[in-house]
Every structure is written in structure tokens, then in C-alpha cells.
């Protein structure tokens, strides 16, 4: 992504004894025209350097797609071992978000919590915005507070930069298969310019101005929470009724009860595969943000509140690092049943 043109010729002119007003005006118009042209230049592997902060379950796969697409990528992660697969693919390593941003035109972040987002992007001494050059873009893909997304956008604008909030849905499989749903909020022209980057990770959905991407993702999480409750309750009911639960979920998957959650997690639950595609700890965080926004809006969503309590119970049992499909464990404990060996499953 091109950067704002150097102001050196103008600086020299200003230092001259008495620059002609007409010449000064002409140079200013040319500088503004050049800046507008640069802002319209397309994003391509040949002219856009990418920085990537956060190489966990989702981030590693997402960043890998950009490297395979030919982009020059610099990465930062607090745990070096999690960045190693990307370094093996040719990514460069930065020792801080600030040093990463100095080498980047577009900086992506996908970290754990809003406090992490604030740290890696806005910290005055080590954050990415501190060294991002004018015209650069911050793209936060973490599920975070809409108000923080608005704050980041305002801070970036004050530096002559841009910011987009672009959280994603689709879990680890969606990240690996470049099939994520991407909810983008920010200036529409900036989002449109970044589409070549988003397109290698999934489907871009423009939701509105700053913060609107986060609002859309939170609505997505509310929907997932209630869907997951319905899935595990149906499975427990089928088991208690004496059905082969594997046959049951296969049968309902093609009817009105079919869902992405069923497709992704039905067989995993039967196989007792609770490896995280998305951590319980992070889902508890997301649902907590949803409830906070509901309180601010004066909105009552009882299904959301119940789901958050059930997921909190997993965290209380030390199961926060399991995947969200581990919700079945809460229902099993409530009903003193186990779905282990409860039915066949399709591999």
C-alpha cells in the first residue's frame, strides 16, 4: 500500500527566503492530488506489505493464506513457537507490534481480549499505531468491544491512517479452508481497497461504519450460543430416549434442524473431541460483551444469559481451554448422563 508522498520538496521551498505564493499553492495542490491517487492504488502482493499480530488457532491459518497468495508478511506473537509455521513459510519476525508496523502497510491483529487489542494497537510505546506511517491501515479481526473499535478508528484517523474492525466467524475449519465469514466495519472505500486481502481468507461482508463489524459479530455469537444449546440438548434428549445419537444427528442434519454448528460439532461431540476451534474462555468473553451491550441498549435476551451461565460453568470446572462444543459436558453433568459411546458417527 503506497504511503503519503514525501513533503521534502515542499519543506525546502518553505525554507527559502520568500516562496512565491502561486508556486506554493501549486505544490500543495499537487501533493493533495498525489495523495488522492495513492489512496486509490490497488492492494497487490507487489506493493502491499502486511503485518500480522496473533498467530493462534485462527490467526496462523489466516496469515498463511496471505503468504501463499504472495504477500510479504511480518509476524508478531508473544509465544514464538506458535509463529514458527509462518516463519517456515517465509514470514519475517518482529519483536514488537511497533516494529512490525514500521515494516507494514496493512496491520492485521487477531488476539484474545479487548485489553490485548488495546495493548498491541494503541500502546504509546509498543503498539502498532505508534509507528504506522500515514495512509497505513489497522485491521482488527479480534471479537472485541464496538466502542474500542470506534476508539481505534478515531486514533488512526488522527494520525492520517485508517482502521477497520473485521471480526470473523467459522472456527478453525473456516480459517484453514479460507471459508470465514468476515464482518467489516469502517470507511467503505478503505474496506473495498482491502478486499483482495480479505478474499483469500473468506467472504467479506460490509456492515457499516466503525464498530459495526463488531456489532455484527456479537449478533453472530448470540445466534451460535442458542444454536449450540439446542444441539446439545437435542443430543442428550435423543440419548435418554434410547436413540443412536449418531444416526439421530445424521437424520436431522438435512431437515429444518440442520445447522453449521451441527455439521461442525455433532460428530466431534460423539467422538469426545473437545479440541478448541474456538476456546470456551474466548466465548465467555464474547458473550460477556454481548450482555454488556444488551444492558446498554436496555435489551433482554434470556437465551444469551442462560448460554453464558452454562459456558461459565465449564470455565469453573477448569475447561476454559476446550472448544465451544464442550457445552455438552455441562448438560451431561446437569442430567447425570454421558454421551460417550452413545452412537455411531460419520468420519
Automatic annotation (TrEMBL):
<dbReference type="InterPro" id="IPR029154">
    <property type="entry name" value="HIBADH-like_NADP-bd"/>
</dbReference>
<dbReference type="Pfam" id="PF14833">
    <property type="entry name" value="NAD_binding_11"/>
</dbReference>
<dbReference type="InterPro" id="IPR008927">
    <property type="entry name" value="6-PGluconate_DH-like_C_sf"/>
</dbReference>
<dbReference type="InterPro" id="IPR015815">
    <property type="entry name" value="HIBADH-related"/>
</dbReference>
<dbReference type="Pfam" id="PF03446">
    <property type="entry name" value="NAD_binding_2"/>
</dbReference>
<keyword id="KW-0560">Oxidoreductase</keyword>
<feature type="domain" description="3-hydroxyisobutyrate dehydrogenase-like NAD-binding">
    <location>
        <begin position="211"/>
        <end position="328"/>
    </location>
</feature>
<protein>
    <submittedName>
        <fullName>Probable 3-hydroxyisobutyrate dehydrogenase-like 1, mitochondrial isoform X2</fullName>
    </submittedName>
</protein>
<dbReference type="InterPro" id="IPR006115">
    <property type="entry name" value="6PGDH_NADP-bd"/>
</dbReference>
<feature type="domain" description="6-phosphogluconate dehydrogenase NADP-binding">
    <location>
        <begin position="49"/>
        <end position="205"/>
    </location>
</feature>
<dbReference type="InterPro" id="IPR013328">
    <property type="entry name" value="6PGD_dom2"/>
</dbReference>
<keyword id="KW-0520">NAD</keyword>
<dbReference type="InterPro" id="IPR036291">
    <property type="entry name" value="NAD(P)-bd_dom_sf"/>
</dbReference>
Amino acid at each position: 500500500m503506497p504511503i503519503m508522498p514525501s513533503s521534502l520538496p515542499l519543506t525546502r521551498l518553505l525554507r527559502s527566503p520568500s516562496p512565491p505564493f502561486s508556486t506554493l499553492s501549486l505544490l500543495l495542490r499537487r501533493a493533495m492530488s498525489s495523495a488522492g491517487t495513492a489512496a486509490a492504488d490497488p492492494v497487490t502482493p507487489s506493493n502491499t506489505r502486511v503485518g500480522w499480530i496473533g498467530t493462534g488457532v485462527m490467526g496462523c491459518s489466516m496469515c498463511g493464506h496471505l503468504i501463499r497468495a504472495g504477500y510479504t508478511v511480518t509476524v508478531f506473537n508473544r509465544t514464538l513457537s506458535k509463529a514458527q509455521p509462518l516463519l517456515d513459510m517465509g514470514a519475517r519476525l518482529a519483536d514488537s507490534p511497533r516494529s512490525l508496523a514500521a515494516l507494514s502497510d496493512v496491520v492485521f491483529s487477531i488476539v484474545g481480549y479487548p485489553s490485548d487489542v488495546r495493548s498491541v494497537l494503541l500502546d504509546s510505546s509498543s503498539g502498532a499505531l505508534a509507528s504506522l506511517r500515514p495512509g497505513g491501515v489497522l485491521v482488527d479481526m479480534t471479537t472485541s468491544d464496538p466502542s474500542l473499535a470506534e476508539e481505534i478508528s478515531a486514533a488512526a484517523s488522527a494520525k492520517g491512517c485508517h482502521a477497520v474492525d473485521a471480526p470473523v466467524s467459522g472456527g478453525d475449519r473456516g480459517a484453514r479452508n479460507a471459508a470465514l465469514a468476515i464482518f467489516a466495519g469502517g470507511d467503505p472505500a478503505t474496506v473495498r481497497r482491502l478486499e483482495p486481502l480479505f478474499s483469500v481468507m473468506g467472504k467479506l461482508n460490509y456492515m457499516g461504519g466503525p464498530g459495526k463489524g463488531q456489532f455484527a459479530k456479537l449478533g453472530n455469537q448470540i445466534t451460535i450460543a442458542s444454536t449450540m444449546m439446542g444441539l446439545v440438548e437435542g443430543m442428550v434428549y435423543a440419548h435418554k430416549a434410547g436413540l443412536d445419537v449418531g444416526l439421530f444427528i445424521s437424520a436431522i442434519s438435512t431437515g429444518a434442524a440442520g445447522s453449521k454448528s451441527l455439521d461442525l460439532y455433532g460428530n466431534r461431540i460423539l467422538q469426545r473431541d473437545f479440541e478448541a476451534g474456538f476456546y470456551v474462555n474466548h466465548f465467555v468473553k464474547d458473550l460477556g460483551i454481548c450482555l454488556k451491550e444488551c444492558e446498554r441498549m436496555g435489551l433482554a435476551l434470556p437465551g444469551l444469559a442462560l448460554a453464558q451461565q452454562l459456558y461459565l460453568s465449564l470455565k469453573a470446572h477448569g475447561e476454559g481451554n476446550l472448544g465451544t462444543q464442550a457445552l455438552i459436558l455441562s448438560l451431561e453433568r446437569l442430567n447425570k448422563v454421558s454421551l460417550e459411546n452413545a452412537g455411531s458417527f460419520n468420519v
